[in-house]
Design a protein that fits this description.
Shape: globular
Strand order of the largest sheet: 3-7-1-8
Largest sheet: 4 strands, antiparallel
Distance between the termini: 44 Å
Order of helices and strands: EEHHEEHEEEHEH
Structural class: alpha+beta
Number of helices: 5
Radius of gyration: 20 Å
Helix content: 25-40%
Number of strands: 8
């Protein structure tokens, strides 16, 4: 069986997000810690590697019995995310694309004039009380990014199992954080408008299973709506 599914939707920032870019030189007065941006238009970017790595790390905490390197993850995770272990190499079934800001025009209508914000923070020495200020750039609360994940079909049965795991990863991440400084309030996100469609393969053979995968993703939104109404 061969096929590919495309998973789309939105990642919405509930709080400011910082995923850092390299900054080997900072001029006086420049931001100390900038974020990753698209060089063509200056839009903030969520790298696919950041989302993939965070989802795998969170799911490893759930499925692994002890702290382990990725190649030693539970087989359910190595099948989904891949493994480079000698003698047990597995290609990951998920392909994550980088995600760029998708709602800048709507944000401008709300009166925003910048795609990012700069947050001042202080590190204060406990022994000397000396403050060391720094500037942290963040993508703005309310920013939305286009989710784009491709899933390689192996079998119908494993599709269902994999989507249950992926849904669990999305759910856990919504109660965790993406990017840096999450314990200080950064990087809270939520997933919306999740959709899956068959882009390569036999629709007659896979449509029923794809519809089941969509139902699994829909459960995430229902769980969040139930939580919000409490």
């Amino acid at each position: 069986m061969y096929g590919k599914l495309k998973i789309t939707g939105k990642i919405e920032l509930v709080t400011g997000l910082h995923i850092g870019a390299s900054n080997s030189f900072s001029a006086i007065g420049a931001v100390d810690s900038p974020i990753v941006k698209d060089v063509r238009n200056g839009n903030p970017v969520i790298p696919g590697s950041s989302l993939k790595g965070k989802l795998r790390t969170l799911l490893a905490k759930k499925y692994n019995e002890a702290v382990a390197e990725p190649n030693e993850d539970n087989p359910k995770l190595t099948s989904l995310f891949g493994s480079s272990k000698k003698g047990d190499i597995k290609a990951g079934r998920l392909i994550f694309s980088d995600m760029t800001l998708a709602n800048w025009e709507d944000m401008k209508k709300e009166g925003l004039t910048s795609k990012t914000e700069v947050k001042w923070e202080n590190t204060i020495s406990r022994s000397t009380a000396v403050a060391t200020p720094r500037q942290i750039e963040r993508a703005i609360r309310g920013s939305k990014f286009d989710l784009d994940i491709v899933y390689d079909v192996i079998s119908k049965e494993e599709m269902i199992s994999d989507f249950e795991i992926l849904k669990e990863g999305f759910k856990i991440l919504q109660y965790d954080y993406l990017g840096g400084s999450g314990t200080r309030g950064y990087g809270k996100v939520k997933f919306t408008d999740l959709s899956v469609c068959l882009v390569v393969g036999d629709s007659n053979e896979l449509t029923e299973t794809v519809n089941k995968c969509q139902e699994i993703l829909d459960e995430l939104g229902k769980q969040e709506d139930s939580s919000d109404n409490k």
